[in-house]
Structure formats: structure tokens, C-alpha cells
Amino acid sequence: MKIIIDGNEVEAEGKKTILEVARENDIFIPSLCDYPQLAPFTGCRLCIVEIKGQKGFPPSCGTLVEEGMEVKTKTPKIQKLRREILELILIEHPNACLICSEKENCDEYKSTIRKVGEVTGCVLCSNNGRCELQDVVNAVKIDSVRFPSVYRNFDIKKNDPFFDRNYNLCILCGRCVRVCHEVRGASTVSFSYRGTQAVVGTALDRPLLESSCQFCGACVDVCPTGTLAERAIKHDSLPDEKALTICPLCSIGCELEIELKERKILRSLPSKQGTTNQGQGCVKGRFTIRDVVYSRKRILKPMIRVNKELEEVSWEEALDFVAKRLKKYKGKKAALITSAQASCEESFLFQKFAREALRTENFDNLARFSPFTAYLEAAKKSGLEPDLNFKIEDISKAKTIFLIGENLTVSHPIIWLEVLKAVKAGAKLIVISPGESFLDRFSELWLQVKPGAIFHLLNILSRILLDTGYEYARIEGIQSFKRNLDKLNLSQISEITGVRGEDLNEASKLLMEETPAAFLFGIGLTQSPSGNQNISALWNLACLTQAQIFPLGLENNLRGVLEIEHRTRGKGLNFNQIARAASIGDIKALYLAGPFPPLKKANLDFLIIQDCFATENMMRADVVLPSTTFAETEGTIVNTEGRIQKFNKVIEPYGEAKPDWWIISRLAGKMGNRGFNYKSPSGIMKEMSKAIPGFKGISSSKLGKDKEIFIQEKKKRKKKFIPLKDNHLPIKTSKKYPFFMLVDYNLDYYRNLSLSQEIRGLEKLRDPKWVKISPEDAKSLKLKDGDGVIIESSAGKIKGIAKVTESMPKGTVRANLFWSEISTVSHEEHSLGVLPVKIGRGE
After folding, report:
1. Using CA atoms, how far apart are residues 294 and 312, in angstroms rounded to an integer?
2. Average pLDDT over all residues of the chain
3. pLDDT at 41 (0 to 100)
4. Interstrand relation of 770-773 and 796-804 (parallel, antiparallel or unpaired)
5. CA-to-CA distance for 593 and 608, rounded, in angstroms?
6. Three-state SS across 676-706?
7. In the 3-class helix/strand/coil scheme, how is 78-90 assigned residue by residue?
8. What is the pTM assigned to this prediction?
9. 236 by DSSP, 3-state: which?
10. Packing angle, helices 531-545 and 454-467, rounded to 10
11. Quick one: which H or E segment has residue 10?
């Protein structure tokens, strides 16, 4: 349609407001309460306009455009009204600097005084220069306020991580309340009281930490004033440069805008143009990037052990030393551990180095423990190759969503936003988990399944569907599948699974009536003794209902690593086997370029560590090679969708750190290997695109222009039902091990840096090392909240801190573990997600 704004004819499509159309055409209309992604609020009234043929001055943020509409935005009447409205807003906001005639000459001389505790003017505010209120005052041309100012005298709230809340600066635009409720689903803050007493706050004025806040930073990003001030940059000056890159701290691959000052990182913000995140982020990408890059644990210079001490040396000396020693340990005596958070180019180069320079097939990384790996292995055993690619926004189109084995608000917050969109559009969310979570408040059904009984739960849902005459898809293996299901003892299902029969019937009814369905699963489904069978049961239920399966990866480049290693992996030792071989001396040279459990009992001749951060294993290292973080190099990663993403170098390397690809290239050359003379990651990508089918035809230049490039997969994929080989009973406790332990893997880490142990704010939020236990069990064990506990299983011991909570059922505890501790709970090829344990007091 065509409309006229201030005499200019513009075009508009779809259901849009006047304000939206004006912004699309670079026509400025002041507003303080409106924000993209939020529903119209019409609160501040600054965006009022005149519309030909209509009475009054409607707000442009709440008025939809119509064909032929004629709008005026800057008439004398409107301008006068806006100034009066803005004056009223400024009554309760410090305004001396906003209307000062000398404000243009002030900042240069008074910037340091913003460190004062109380903000009474712009030069004292951390948001000075970033403030939308300043922009609106300048646009409306306010030079005086005729009404007396009112200072609300609220205490500044500084007891939560990452940002302060100073509601003396709040203009009650409601943006923070609305983004928390509408977009994030947390509803942590809301309006309290009415009239002149109105204020934004939490229920009972509790700290954010006690109010379900996940500190995603969305409220800080939408705040138009300095009310919500990020603590890390509160006293810093404005950035002089900005750069875009991809966040490496989870599998979503959010695009970040990095603010720089003199080529150093000030802070990170979710990019509004980000394809996957669309202006949203999480606590890690929003508040921890600077701390990660400039961590006190950064390794900044190469080191060689001399006379039992690590001494700093030049790169040339370090590489010569490694090359000379490594030549003695090739083949089965050598092993390489890499990081699933390295780029695709570096992952490809690592496996090439292992095969050609070390002449070994012993290389692996933590991708082995991902849901993707388990999913692929289970499918491969049945001759299937599942489609792993998807788009995050597809989830919001589902009518029924099954979520198994993941707390999305922590592990995949951007995917949670799509689930929330679906729920708000009427979709039914079914959560399958042994313990309560934040998501339960949005679910239609919470199926509290007993530990280890997911296999039976999924199979009984298939059985109920078939028994009710459900019109299932005619796919190979259906008759065999039906015969297997007929063996299920329906009378014992509730006892085995812990789920009531009526809830199972309701879940199956939703699957029949509310289509299409989406099955989302994470590590809680796969990391158990019956992980492969769980996947088979889920696959069969998805085949039956024609639902789409969404496996949720954990780290930022798991898909890329799997695509590379899926095509190149030989018959060498895997992660757990390498750990065991190192402990008994079967491996003599170990090259650690990724996370690995502490080598307390290893029998090694030569240990090389190539990492960004110092670790406990450095105490045993013969040589240490400092590598760069993601911010100091460039390359590509593949996110959980299968989307290939290019990340950019935003700062120069810290200290003498070098990119992983540079280190491996130079080292291979010194070991006499040709074919490693790379000048940049683009050269590696060129070679990789020929060797790895999923990257066929990909180039760095192509990735820089197109954000819709995905790992290439087969177009036609076979579907069939997987035979149920074992209707085993769930894991049982015993007199020796009377409790179930559910393992939650703590994913707050980058390379070898544990974020929730190193960053104080994240430590407060995550509360690492907790062991959740029910009040009944705590009483019987004579434990109270905060006591130290030791949990012992047949696989080993771990220590933790008791957290007594009503959310845990009696007889079950939940432990929060870091990846570095996986060796203590390992079992065969995969870490257990459920263990029979005993519990005792500890330090």
C-alpha cells in the first residue's frame, strides 16, 4: 500500500504501524516506550502524529497504516505537545545536564566524575553518550523544564551480578518489563504500585538472583536511560570502534557486536541483525566475553620445562623442541586431544596433523559425548543417516513440542525463545524430565519420568497411539515394531516410568490431534546406559507421528567437528580409551589441544599443552604453546542448525599467543611434513571443501556474503522403524548404592576455562558444585543446605555442596559436573546420565 508521511509518498507491506513504516524510510519520530520485537505500548505518547481525516493525535506506535493514509509528524501543534509531554517525563529524571546550554563542552572535562555513587546529571551517568533520552531531548529541542523536579530517592540496587539498577533514572517506559515477559518468558520484573508511586521491581522487592532471572541482559539492552547500568563498563569511556563476530560459548552461534576502545574489548552485545539470535543473547555472550579474552589464566608466552620448571622461550625454540621430541613417538604411542570449540579449519588441520605428522589414529575430543554423536551412532547401527539440519525458527511453527533431557533456558536460551513463541501461539509443550525446571510453568504436561525409564515412556506412547487406531505412516519395519510393542506389560508401565496412565493418554492425544510435532532432545536423553535405545524409541515415535527431530548440540562447533571426523576417523582410540592408555603407559606422548581430565596418575614421557588458558595439567607439561581465543583469529564454525558461520578477528592476539592453525602448520613443517604451508584459514577451507563432502563448494568469500549456507546433506533419506532389541528394566538401586544420581553437565566453559568458576557473577547465578537433594533425604542423612557431600558410585567419587530443594523426588539426587570431571563418572563409551550412588558427608 502507499501512504504519505510529511509529504513524501512511501510504500508499506503487511500489518505495520506508522512508526515502523517511518523508521523503514528513515523518517524520525521520537519514541521512548516503543522497541522492535515488543508489542505496542503507547505509554510515552511522544510518537503522536496527525492523520488527515481523523481527530486528535494518535500514537504512531499503535496505529496501523492504511491505503492512502496521509500522516504529518512535525506540525507546530505536535511539536508543542511533545515538548510538554517530555517536560513531564523529565520531572522525575535528573535533567540539569539535558537542558544545560553548555552541555556540548562538558563531557571532555568531567568524564571522570561519573564514578560518583549518585547520578544527578548526564556527565555522572554511565549511559552518557548511549542514552536515547538524550537523543529525544535534542530532537524535540527541550531547553527548559517549567515544572519542579522530583527526586525519588530510591536506593541503588547493587546486590546482583553484572548490572546495577538505579530506578531514580527510570522513566517507566516499561521496556524492561515487556521484554522480560513477552520475549524472554521470565517475567522477573513488573510494575509495582500506581500513579506517582509506580516503580519497576521484582516480587516482594527480592534480588534478581532470587527471582528466576537468567541475566540474559535483554532488559539492559532495551533500557533507554542509565537505569540499568552494566557494571563492567560503568566507568569506561565510549567505544571508538565496533566489530561483528560469532559467540563461541554455546551451539547457537549468536552474532555479537563487539565494542572496542583503542583495539581492546569493552563489551559485547547481541547483534540486532544476527540471523540466529535476532538481537537476543544470553548471560555468557552478553556479559562474559571480555572476561574470557582477558582472563587472568591466559597463557601468553611459549614455555619449556627446564630443571623441573617451566621457562618462557621464543616460538622458534618451543616449536623446534616439540618437533624434535615428537619424532620419537609416532603411531600407537602418540595421541592428540582437540577442542570441539576450535574452528572447522583448525579441526580439519588437527586431524590431518595426527594422521600425517604423528601417524596416529588416536585423536578425539569431547564431541564424542554430544547428543549428535549418540544420535548418529544409533542411526548408523540401523543403516540410517538422519537429517541433522534445521532452522531454529521451524520450532515455533510446531503445534506440539516434546522436550527431553535439556533445560533450554540455560543450555539453549535462543531455542527456548522459539519454543516460547510456539506456546504463545497455542502450541502444547510436553516436558519429560525426572526433576522440575523453569520450563514446567509453560508446559501443558510435565511427565516426571523415573531415572532411566525414558525408553519405556516413549515406547508406551507409541503403543497407545497404535492401540487407539492412529493413522500412522506406512514405513518399513512397522509390523516388526508393532510386535515388539505388544510385548510391553501395560499393567506395570506406571510403576516402571513413574508417570500416571491418564498423563500418558493425554500426551498421546496431543500427538494425535496437535500436529505438526517437534521432538527436541539433549544430553539427558543420550548420556545413560540406554542412550542408544532411548534414541531408537524416540526415532520410532517420530516416524509414527511424522514429527521432526531436533537434536540439540552443546558446544559451538560440534556439527563441524562431527562432519569432519565422520569422514576421516579411523580405528584409533577414543577419548576415554586415550585417558586409560595414558594412565597405564600405553601412550607415551600426549598432545592436549582441548579439555582433558587431570593427569594425576598418567605414565607419560612427553606432554604438550596447546591452549588459551592455564590448567592443572600444566604442572606436568613438558612444553606449553599459547593459542589465541576466537576474538584474536578468524575462521568458520557450524552451529546446531548445521549453519556454517564465519567469525571475524576483532583484536590483535594477546601477548604472544598464536592461532591454532598457525601453530600446527609451523610445527608440521618443522617435523618435515609437506602440505602444511598455510597462510590463512581461507587456504585450509579451500582444501577442506574438496576433502569433506559437507563443505563442498564452500569458500571464505562466499561465507562472508551469505548467512544461509548449511552443511550439505543427502536430499533423499531412508526412513524405517528401528527394531526394539531390549525391553530392559530401568537402572535399579541397591543396598550399597541406595540413591539415583542424575548428572547435569555444566557447559559454562570455553576451551579449558570454567566460566562459572572464574567469573564471579556467573558463579553466583549457576551455583556450581551443587548436589540437589530432597528435604526427606537430607533429614535422613543429617545434611543441611550448604553442607559438603561426597557421592560415590562404582565409577568413582565426586565432591559437592548439598542444596536441599523440594524439586527433587525422594531417593534421587542431581549433581552439577564440569566436563573435566567426566572421567569420574564414565562408563564404556559414554558418560552416564543416571548412576546408583551412596551419599556421605564431605568437606
Report:
1. 20
2. 90
3. 93
4. parallel
5. 8
6. CCCCCHHHHHHHHHHHCHHHCCCCHHHHHHC
7. HHHHHHHHHHHHH
8. 0.92
9. coil
10. 20
11. strand 8-11
Contacts of 316 (CB under 8 A, 6+ apart): none
Q: What is the pLDDT of residue 828?
A: 41
Give the residue carrying C-alpha cell 510435532.
517
Q: Which three cell numbers stand for residue 259?
A: 565494542
Q: List helix spans (H) across 91-210.
A: 107-110, 132-140, 175-178
What is the reported pLDDT for 484? 86
| Structure confidence at residue 827 (pLDDT) | 39
Give dist(CA 158, CA 179) in Å, integer: 21
Q: Where are the beta strands (DSSP E) in 142-299?
A: 163-165, 190-192, 199-201, 228-230, 241-246, 255-261, 264-270
The answer to whether 399 touches 518, Cβ cutoff 8 Å, is no
Amino acid (1-letter code) at residue 191: F
Q: Express the helix, strand and coil content of the chain in percent, nearest 5 each.
A: 35, 20, 45
What pLDDT sits at residue 824?
46
| Residue partners of 59: CB distance under 8 A and separation at least 6 | 40, 42, 45, 47, 48, 49
pLDDT for residue 686: 94
Task: List, in order of start, the domains of the chain with CATH numbers.
Answer: 1-74 (3.10.20.740), 241-293 (2.20.25.90), 303-365+557-705 (3.40.50.740), 371-551 (3.40.228.10), 739-841 (2.40.40.20)
Written as nine digits, the cell of 256 is: 555479537
Q: Reduced to 3 states, what is the DSSP secondary structure of residue 753?
A: strand
For residue 562, give Cα distances in angstroms to 250, 359, 361: 16, 21, 16
Q: Are 185 and 213 in contact (CB under 8 A)?
A: no
Low-confidence ranges of the chain (pLDDT < 70): 107-116, 473, 567-570, 715-716, 726-731, 768, 795, 817-833
Rounded distance, CA 373 to CA 821, Å? Answer: 20
Per the CB < 8 A criterion, the answer to whether 174 and 145 are in contact is no
In the prediction, which pLDDT does 225 show?
Answer: 96
pLDDT, tens only, 259-317: 999 999 999 999 999 999 999 999 999 999 999 999 999 999 999 999 999 999 999 99
